[in-house]
Amino acid sequence: MASKWHPDTNPDGMVNLGTAENHLMLNDIADFINSKGLHLEGKDFDYGEGPWGSVRLRKGMAKFINRHFHPFSPVDADELTFANGCTSLFNMLRMTIADPEDGLLLSMPGYIAFPTDFSLLAKMKPVFVPFHGADQFSLDAVTHYEEAYRKAEESGTRIRALMLCNPHNPLGKCYPKETLIALMKFCQQRKVHLLADEVYAMSVYEVPEPSATPFISVLSFDYSRYINRDYLHFIYGMAKDFACGGLRMGALWTKNKELARAVATINQFRWPGQVDERVAAKILEDEEWLDSFLTKSRERLAASNKLARQLMDYAGIGYASGANAGLFFWIDLSPWLNEDDGKDDWEREERLVKRMLENKVFLTNGKGQASERPGFFRPVFSREERMLREGFRRLVNTLEEN
Ligand SMILES: Cc1ncc(COP(=O)(O)O)c(C=O)c1O
Protein backbone atom coordinates (compact mmCIF):
# COMPACT_ATOMS: atom_id res chain seq x y z
CA MET A 1 0.00 0.00 0.00
CA ALA A 2 2.86 2.36 -0.91
CA SER A 3 0.86 4.94 -2.87
CA LYS A 4 -1.71 6.05 -0.31
CA TRP A 5 -4.56 8.26 -1.43
CA HIS A 6 -4.52 11.85 -0.23
CA PRO A 7 -7.10 14.39 -1.47
CA ASP A 8 -4.46 17.07 -2.16
CA THR A 9 -1.09 15.40 -2.55
CA ASN A 10 -2.01 12.04 -4.10
CA PRO A 11 -5.58 12.03 -5.49
CA ASP A 12 -4.71 9.05 -7.73
CA GLY A 13 -3.43 6.93 -4.88
CA MET A 14 -5.05 3.80 -3.47
CA VAL A 15 -7.96 4.29 -1.07
CA ASN A 16 -7.44 1.71 1.64
CA LEU A 17 -10.74 0.58 3.11
CA GLY A 18 -9.15 -2.75 3.96
CA THR A 19 -6.75 -2.31 6.86
CA ALA A 20 -8.47 -2.16 10.25
CA GLU A 21 -6.90 1.06 11.51
CA ASN A 22 -8.79 3.77 13.32
CA HIS A 23 -7.75 6.81 11.28
CA LEU A 24 -10.32 8.89 13.13
CA MET A 25 -8.16 8.93 16.26
CA LEU A 26 -4.56 8.80 14.99
CA ASN A 27 -3.95 12.53 15.37
CA ASP A 28 -5.47 12.57 18.85
CA ILE A 29 -3.04 9.96 20.09
CA ALA A 30 -0.09 11.76 18.45
CA ASP A 31 -1.19 15.12 19.92
CA PHE A 32 -1.45 13.58 23.37
CA ILE A 33 2.05 12.10 23.27
CA ASN A 34 3.49 15.30 21.79
CA SER A 35 1.82 17.44 24.44
CA LYS A 36 3.07 15.25 27.27
CA GLY A 37 6.65 14.98 26.12
CA LEU A 38 8.32 11.70 26.86
CA HIS A 39 11.44 12.96 28.66
CA LEU A 40 13.35 9.77 27.99
CA GLU A 41 16.13 8.85 30.36
CA GLY A 42 19.24 6.74 29.92
CA LYS A 43 17.59 3.79 31.65
CA ASP A 44 14.88 3.72 28.99
CA PHE A 45 17.49 2.41 26.59
CA ASP A 46 18.65 -0.58 28.61
CA TYR A 47 17.00 -4.00 28.34
CA GLY A 48 14.23 -3.17 30.77
CA GLU A 49 12.55 -5.48 33.22
CA GLY A 50 12.17 -8.65 31.19
CA PRO A 51 10.06 -10.27 28.49
CA TRP A 52 6.67 -9.65 30.10
CA GLY A 53 6.49 -5.85 30.20
CA SER A 54 7.51 -3.37 32.89
CA VAL A 55 5.62 -3.27 36.19
CA ARG A 56 4.53 0.24 35.27
CA LEU A 57 3.04 -0.91 31.96
CA ARG A 58 1.34 -3.97 33.46
CA LYS A 59 -0.10 -1.90 36.30
CA GLY A 60 -1.40 0.65 33.80
CA MET A 61 -3.10 -2.05 31.72
CA ALA A 62 -4.51 -3.85 34.78
CA LYS A 63 -6.03 -0.57 35.95
CA PHE A 64 -7.47 0.08 32.51
CA ILE A 65 -9.05 -3.38 32.32
CA ASN A 66 -10.45 -3.07 35.84
CA ARG A 67 -12.01 0.28 34.99
CA HIS A 68 -13.40 -0.52 31.56
CA PHE A 69 -14.06 -4.28 31.35
CA HIS A 70 -15.75 -4.53 34.77
CA PRO A 71 -14.12 -7.84 35.72
CA PHE A 72 -15.85 -10.05 38.29
CA SER A 73 -12.51 -10.32 40.13
CA PRO A 74 -9.95 -7.56 39.63
CA VAL A 75 -7.18 -8.26 37.15
CA ASP A 76 -3.75 -8.21 38.73
CA ALA A 77 -0.72 -6.73 36.97
CA ASP A 78 1.16 -9.99 37.64
CA GLU A 79 -1.37 -11.92 35.55
CA LEU A 80 -0.48 -9.92 32.42
CA THR A 81 2.26 -10.61 29.90
CA PHE A 82 3.07 -8.07 27.21
CA ALA A 83 4.33 -8.94 23.74
CA ASN A 84 4.82 -6.90 20.58
CA GLY A 85 1.20 -7.19 19.47
CA CYS A 86 -1.64 -9.69 19.85
CA THR A 87 -0.36 -11.36 16.69
CA SER A 88 2.79 -12.43 18.53
CA LEU A 89 0.70 -13.67 21.44
CA PHE A 90 -1.41 -15.87 19.15
CA ASN A 91 1.72 -17.40 17.73
CA MET A 92 3.11 -18.08 21.21
CA LEU A 93 -0.20 -19.48 22.42
CA ARG A 94 -0.05 -22.05 19.70
CA MET A 95 3.43 -23.07 20.82
CA THR A 96 2.33 -23.41 24.42
CA ILE A 97 -1.18 -24.87 24.41
CA ALA A 98 -0.92 -27.14 21.39
CA ASP A 99 1.33 -29.42 19.37
CA PRO A 100 1.84 -28.99 15.61
CA GLU A 101 -1.20 -30.27 13.68
CA ASP A 102 -3.55 -29.81 16.66
CA GLY A 103 -6.76 -28.04 15.68
CA LEU A 104 -8.04 -24.54 16.44
CA LEU A 105 -11.78 -23.88 16.06
CA LEU A 106 -12.41 -20.68 14.11
CA SER A 107 -15.79 -19.14 13.31
CA MET A 108 -16.81 -18.52 9.68
CA PRO A 109 -16.29 -15.78 8.74
CA GLY A 110 -13.37 -14.77 10.94
CA TYR A 111 -10.43 -12.39 11.29
CA ILE A 112 -8.28 -12.82 8.20
CA ALA A 113 -5.01 -13.41 10.07
CA PHE A 114 -6.08 -15.98 12.67
CA PRO A 115 -5.26 -18.95 10.42
CA THR A 116 -1.76 -17.65 9.62
CA ASP A 117 -1.09 -16.40 13.16
CA PHE A 118 -1.59 -19.91 14.44
CA SER A 119 -0.37 -21.97 11.51
CA LEU A 120 2.32 -20.17 9.49
CA LEU A 121 5.24 -20.59 11.90
CA ALA A 122 3.54 -22.74 14.44
CA LYS A 123 1.68 -25.30 12.31
CA MET A 124 -1.60 -25.43 14.19
CA LYS A 125 -4.46 -26.54 11.98
CA PRO A 126 -7.33 -24.06 11.50
CA VAL A 127 -10.65 -25.91 11.78
CA PHE A 128 -13.33 -23.64 10.36
CA VAL A 129 -16.80 -23.77 11.85
CA PRO A 130 -19.64 -23.20 9.35
CA PHE A 131 -23.02 -22.09 10.69
CA HIS A 132 -25.11 -22.85 7.58
CA GLY A 133 -27.26 -19.74 7.97
CA ALA A 134 -27.72 -20.06 11.76
CA ASP A 135 -26.90 -17.04 13.92
CA GLN A 136 -23.37 -17.61 15.22
CA PHE A 137 -24.03 -15.23 18.12
CA SER A 138 -26.98 -17.26 19.38
CA LEU A 139 -27.04 -20.45 21.42
CA ASP A 140 -27.57 -22.35 18.15
CA ALA A 141 -23.89 -21.70 17.41
CA VAL A 142 -22.78 -24.28 19.96
CA THR A 143 -24.27 -27.15 17.95
CA HIS A 144 -22.09 -26.09 15.05
CA TYR A 145 -18.95 -25.94 17.20
CA GLU A 146 -19.86 -29.44 18.47
CA GLU A 147 -20.26 -30.68 14.91
CA ALA A 148 -16.94 -29.21 13.75
CA TYR A 149 -15.25 -30.62 16.86
CA ARG A 150 -16.68 -34.09 16.26
CA LYS A 151 -15.71 -34.17 12.58
CA ALA A 152 -12.17 -32.98 13.30
CA GLU A 153 -11.60 -35.49 16.08
CA GLU A 154 -13.03 -38.30 13.91
CA SER A 155 -10.59 -37.41 11.15
CA GLY A 156 -7.68 -37.50 13.59
CA THR A 157 -7.27 -33.80 14.42
CA ARG A 158 -7.12 -33.15 18.14
CA ILE A 159 -8.89 -29.85 18.94
CA ARG A 160 -6.97 -27.85 21.52
CA ALA A 161 -8.52 -24.38 21.40
CA LEU A 162 -11.45 -22.25 20.32
CA MET A 163 -10.84 -18.68 19.20
CA LEU A 164 -13.54 -16.30 20.34
CA CYS A 165 -13.32 -12.84 18.81
CA ASN A 166 -15.65 -10.53 20.73
CA PRO A 167 -16.54 -8.00 19.35
CA HIS A 168 -16.35 -10.04 16.21
CA ASN A 169 -14.07 -9.30 13.29
CA PRO A 170 -15.35 -9.04 10.52
CA LEU A 171 -19.03 -9.01 11.54
CA GLY A 172 -18.74 -6.11 14.01
CA LYS A 173 -21.16 -7.74 16.45
CA CYS A 174 -20.95 -8.68 20.13
CA TYR A 175 -21.79 -12.00 21.80
CA PRO A 176 -24.57 -12.10 24.38
CA LYS A 177 -23.70 -13.48 27.81
CA GLU A 178 -25.65 -16.71 27.33
CA THR A 179 -23.60 -17.60 24.25
CA LEU A 180 -20.34 -16.82 26.05
CA ILE A 181 -21.42 -19.13 28.87
CA ALA A 182 -22.47 -21.88 26.45
CA LEU A 183 -19.11 -21.69 24.68
CA MET A 184 -17.31 -21.83 28.02
CA LYS A 185 -19.26 -24.95 28.96
CA PHE A 186 -18.46 -26.50 25.58
CA CYS A 187 -14.75 -25.81 26.10
CA GLN A 188 -14.86 -27.14 29.64
CA GLN A 189 -16.56 -30.34 28.59
CA ARG A 190 -14.08 -30.96 25.79
CA LYS A 191 -10.97 -29.73 27.64
CA VAL A 192 -10.45 -27.08 24.98
CA HIS A 193 -8.74 -23.74 25.71
CA LEU A 194 -10.93 -20.69 25.17
CA LEU A 195 -8.95 -17.80 23.69
CA ALA A 196 -10.95 -14.60 24.07
CA ASP A 197 -9.69 -11.80 21.82
CA GLU A 198 -11.45 -8.60 22.93
CA VAL A 199 -9.26 -6.17 21.03
CA TYR A 200 -12.28 -4.12 19.82
CA ALA A 201 -13.98 -3.98 23.24
CA MET A 202 -13.89 -0.19 23.59
CA SER A 203 -14.85 0.44 19.96
CA VAL A 204 -18.55 -0.19 20.52
CA TYR A 205 -20.64 2.68 19.18
CA GLU A 206 -24.27 3.73 19.09
CA VAL A 207 -26.41 2.53 16.21
CA PRO A 208 -30.08 3.06 15.38
CA GLU A 209 -30.74 -0.69 15.76
CA PRO A 210 -32.12 -1.40 19.24
CA SER A 211 -31.48 -5.13 18.72
CA ALA A 212 -27.69 -4.67 18.62
CA THR A 213 -26.05 -6.58 21.47
CA PRO A 214 -23.99 -4.54 23.95
CA PHE A 215 -20.45 -5.72 24.65
CA ILE A 216 -19.80 -7.89 27.67
CA SER A 217 -16.36 -9.23 28.52
CA VAL A 218 -15.62 -12.86 29.43
CA LEU A 219 -14.00 -11.41 32.55
CA SER A 220 -17.14 -9.59 33.69
CA PHE A 221 -18.94 -12.51 35.33
CA ASP A 222 -17.94 -15.51 37.40
CA TYR A 223 -16.62 -17.57 34.49
CA SER A 224 -15.16 -20.13 36.91
CA ARG A 225 -18.67 -21.58 37.26
CA TYR A 226 -18.49 -22.65 33.63
CA ILE A 227 -14.85 -23.17 32.71
CA ASN A 228 -11.74 -24.15 34.63
CA ARG A 229 -9.72 -20.96 35.05
CA ASP A 230 -6.64 -22.62 33.57
CA TYR A 231 -8.55 -22.88 30.28
CA LEU A 232 -9.65 -19.28 29.77
CA HIS A 233 -7.15 -16.81 28.28
CA PHE A 234 -7.93 -13.19 27.49
CA ILE A 235 -6.08 -11.21 24.83
CA TYR A 236 -6.19 -7.45 24.54
CA GLY A 237 -4.03 -4.92 22.73
CA MET A 238 -3.64 -1.27 21.90
CA ALA A 239 -3.90 -1.52 18.10
CA LYS A 240 -7.61 -0.79 17.77
CA ASP A 241 -9.25 0.96 20.73
CA PHE A 242 -6.16 3.15 21.21
CA ALA A 243 -5.48 3.64 17.48
CA CYS A 244 -1.91 2.46 18.11
CA GLY A 245 -1.37 -0.42 15.67
CA GLY A 246 2.21 0.69 15.08
CA LEU A 247 3.05 0.62 18.77
CA ARG A 248 2.89 -3.19 18.69
CA MET A 249 1.46 -3.70 22.16
CA GLY A 250 -0.52 -6.82 23.09
CA ALA A 251 -1.32 -8.27 26.50
CA LEU A 252 -2.22 -11.77 27.57
CA TRP A 253 -4.15 -12.29 30.79
CA THR A 254 -4.28 -15.80 32.16
CA LYS A 255 -4.61 -17.43 35.57
CA ASN A 256 -2.69 -20.41 34.18
CA LYS A 257 0.74 -19.82 35.70
CA GLU A 258 2.43 -22.58 33.74
CA LEU A 259 1.15 -21.11 30.48
CA ALA A 260 2.21 -17.58 31.48
CA ARG A 261 5.70 -18.86 32.31
CA ALA A 262 5.98 -20.70 28.99
CA VAL A 263 4.84 -17.64 27.03
CA ALA A 264 7.27 -15.39 28.89
CA THR A 265 10.10 -17.77 27.97
CA ILE A 266 9.35 -17.65 24.23
CA ASN A 267 8.66 -13.96 24.54
CA GLN A 268 12.44 -13.42 24.55
CA PHE A 269 11.93 -13.21 20.79
CA ARG A 270 8.91 -10.91 20.83
CA TRP A 271 8.86 -8.51 23.74
CA PRO A 272 8.14 -4.85 23.10
CA GLY A 273 10.89 -2.22 23.19
CA GLN A 274 11.31 -0.16 26.34
CA VAL A 275 10.61 3.16 24.65
CA ASP A 276 7.37 1.78 23.22
CA GLU A 277 6.47 0.57 26.69
CA ARG A 278 6.99 4.09 28.02
CA VAL A 279 4.64 5.51 25.38
CA ALA A 280 2.01 2.86 26.15
CA ALA A 281 2.25 3.41 29.91
CA LYS A 282 1.87 7.17 29.43
CA ILE A 283 -1.35 6.60 27.49
CA LEU A 284 -2.76 4.11 29.99
CA GLU A 285 -2.02 6.23 33.04
CA ASP A 286 -3.96 9.37 32.09
CA GLU A 287 -7.46 8.18 32.95
CA GLU A 288 -9.20 11.50 32.46
CA TRP A 289 -7.72 11.97 29.02
CA LEU A 290 -8.40 8.33 28.11
CA ASP A 291 -12.06 8.61 29.09
CA SER A 292 -12.51 11.57 26.77
CA PHE A 293 -10.45 9.87 24.04
CA LEU A 294 -12.65 6.76 24.14
CA THR A 295 -15.85 8.82 24.19
CA LYS A 296 -14.64 10.81 21.19
CA SER A 297 -13.64 7.62 19.39
CA ARG A 298 -17.07 6.05 19.89
CA GLU A 299 -18.80 9.23 18.70
CA ARG A 300 -16.66 9.43 15.60
CA LEU A 301 -17.10 5.74 14.85
CA ALA A 302 -20.88 6.15 15.20
CA ALA A 303 -20.88 9.13 12.81
CA SER A 304 -18.65 7.42 10.30
CA ASN A 305 -20.65 4.20 10.47
CA LYS A 306 -23.84 6.20 9.89
CA LEU A 307 -22.34 7.81 6.80
CA ALA A 308 -21.09 4.44 5.53
CA ARG A 309 -24.55 2.91 5.97
CA GLN A 310 -26.13 5.88 4.16
CA LEU A 311 -23.71 5.46 1.25
CA MET A 312 -24.50 1.74 1.10
CA ASP A 313 -28.26 2.38 1.28
CA TYR A 314 -28.00 4.94 -1.49
CA ALA A 315 -26.11 2.46 -3.68
CA GLY A 316 -28.55 -0.35 -2.86
CA ILE A 317 -25.86 -2.47 -1.20
CA GLY A 318 -27.01 -4.77 1.58
CA TYR A 319 -25.11 -5.26 4.85
CA ALA A 320 -25.36 -7.49 7.91
CA SER A 321 -27.65 -6.10 10.60
CA GLY A 322 -26.79 -5.70 14.28
CA ALA A 323 -23.21 -4.45 13.85
CA ASN A 324 -22.25 -1.96 16.57
CA ALA A 325 -18.55 -2.58 17.17
CA GLY A 326 -15.17 -2.58 15.51
CA LEU A 327 -14.02 -0.48 12.62
CA PHE A 328 -15.81 -2.28 9.77
CA PHE A 329 -19.01 -3.91 8.62
CA TRP A 330 -19.96 -6.84 6.41
CA ILE A 331 -21.49 -6.01 3.04
CA ASP A 332 -23.10 -8.22 0.43
CA LEU A 333 -21.80 -7.67 -3.10
CA SER A 334 -22.98 -11.06 -4.36
CA PRO A 335 -25.56 -9.45 -6.71
CA TRP A 336 -22.58 -7.88 -8.54
CA LEU A 337 -20.68 -11.12 -9.20
CA ASN A 338 -20.51 -11.20 -12.95
CA GLU A 339 -21.29 -14.52 -14.66
CA ASP A 340 -18.66 -13.89 -17.34
CA ASP A 341 -15.96 -13.46 -14.72
CA GLY A 342 -15.19 -17.03 -13.82
CA LYS A 343 -16.37 -20.59 -13.50
CA ASP A 344 -17.82 -20.12 -10.02
CA ASP A 345 -18.73 -17.32 -7.65
CA TRP A 346 -15.43 -17.57 -5.70
CA GLU A 347 -13.53 -16.87 -8.93
CA ARG A 348 -15.96 -14.04 -9.70
CA GLU A 349 -15.32 -12.58 -6.24
CA GLU A 350 -11.56 -12.63 -6.95
CA ARG A 351 -12.20 -10.88 -10.24
CA LEU A 352 -14.26 -8.23 -8.47
CA VAL A 353 -11.32 -7.63 -6.09
CA LYS A 354 -9.06 -7.12 -9.11
CA ARG A 355 -11.51 -4.65 -10.63
CA MET A 356 -11.62 -2.73 -7.36
CA LEU A 357 -7.83 -2.55 -7.28
CA GLU A 358 -7.84 -1.33 -10.90
CA ASN A 359 -10.14 1.43 -9.68
CA LYS A 360 -7.74 2.07 -6.79
CA VAL A 361 -9.90 1.01 -3.91
CA PHE A 362 -8.92 -1.81 -1.56
CA LEU A 363 -11.37 -3.84 0.53
CA THR A 364 -10.83 -7.29 2.04
CA ASN A 365 -13.00 -9.91 0.42
CA GLY A 366 -14.85 -12.76 2.05
CA LYS A 367 -12.74 -15.65 0.81
CA GLY A 368 -9.68 -14.70 2.85
CA GLN A 369 -11.97 -14.21 5.84
CA ALA A 370 -13.44 -17.70 5.61
CA SER A 371 -16.83 -16.50 4.45
CA GLU A 372 -19.27 -19.34 3.91
CA ARG A 373 -20.69 -17.65 0.84
CA PRO A 374 -18.97 -15.73 -1.97
CA GLY A 375 -19.51 -12.04 -2.61
CA PHE A 376 -19.10 -10.61 0.89
CA PHE A 377 -16.63 -7.84 1.72
CA ARG A 378 -15.49 -5.97 4.83
CA PRO A 379 -15.13 -2.22 4.29
CA VAL A 380 -13.38 -0.35 7.09
CA PHE A 381 -15.30 2.86 7.82
CA SER A 382 -12.99 4.41 10.45
CA ARG A 383 -11.75 6.87 7.87
CA GLU A 384 -11.84 10.60 7.50
CA GLU A 385 -15.03 11.64 5.63
CA ARG A 386 -13.43 12.61 2.33
CA MET A 387 -11.59 9.32 2.14
CA LEU A 388 -14.67 7.31 3.00
CA ARG A 389 -16.72 9.08 0.32
CA GLU A 390 -13.96 8.65 -2.27
CA GLY A 391 -13.53 4.97 -1.41
CA PHE A 392 -17.24 4.25 -1.72
CA ARG A 393 -17.45 6.30 -4.91
CA ARG A 394 -14.75 4.08 -6.44
CA LEU A 395 -16.46 0.97 -5.10
CA VAL A 396 -19.80 1.94 -6.64
CA ASN A 397 -18.08 2.82 -9.95
CA THR A 398 -16.52 -0.65 -9.96
CA LEU A 399 -19.89 -2.29 -9.38
CA GLU A 400 -21.51 -0.22 -12.10
CA GLU A 401 -18.80 -1.26 -14.57
CA ASN A 402 -19.17 -4.91 -13.64
C1 LIG B 1 -9.43 -9.52 16.02
C2 LIG B 1 -8.03 -9.02 15.90
N1 LIG B 1 -7.11 -9.45 16.77
C3 LIG B 1 -5.83 -9.02 16.68
C4 LIG B 1 -5.43 -8.15 15.70
C5 LIG B 1 -3.99 -7.72 15.59
O1 LIG B 1 -3.51 -7.18 16.77
P1 LIG B 1 -2.02 -6.62 16.88
O2 LIG B 1 -1.90 -5.45 15.95
O3 LIG B 1 -1.91 -6.23 18.33
O4 LIG B 1 -1.10 -7.72 16.52
C6 LIG B 1 -6.36 -7.67 14.78
C7 LIG B 1 -5.95 -6.74 13.69
O5 LIG B 1 -6.65 -6.48 12.76
C8 LIG B 1 -7.69 -8.12 14.89
O6 LIG B 1 -8.63 -7.70 14.04
List keywords for this structure.
seven-stranded mixed beta sheet; four-stranded antiparallel beta sheet; 1-aminocyclopropane-1-carboxylate synthase 1; PyrdxlP-dep_Trfase; 402 residues; Aminotransferase_I/II_large; transaminase activity; Aspartate Aminotransferase, domain 1; 2 domains; binds pyridoxal-5'-phosphate; alpha/beta
Structural class: alpha/beta
At CATH level 3, the topology of the largest domain is Aspartate Aminotransferase, domain 2
The parts where pLDDT drops under 50 for at least 5 residues are: none
Distance between the termini: 24 Å
Helix content: 25-40%
Largest sheet: 7 strands, mixed
Number of strands: 13
**% residues in beta strands:** 5-15%
The value of Rg in angstroms is: 21 Å
Write the element-wise H/E pattern from the N-terminal end onward. EHHEHEHEHEHEEEHHHEEHEEEH
Bound molecules: pyridoxal-5'-phosphate
CATH class of the largest domain: Alpha Beta
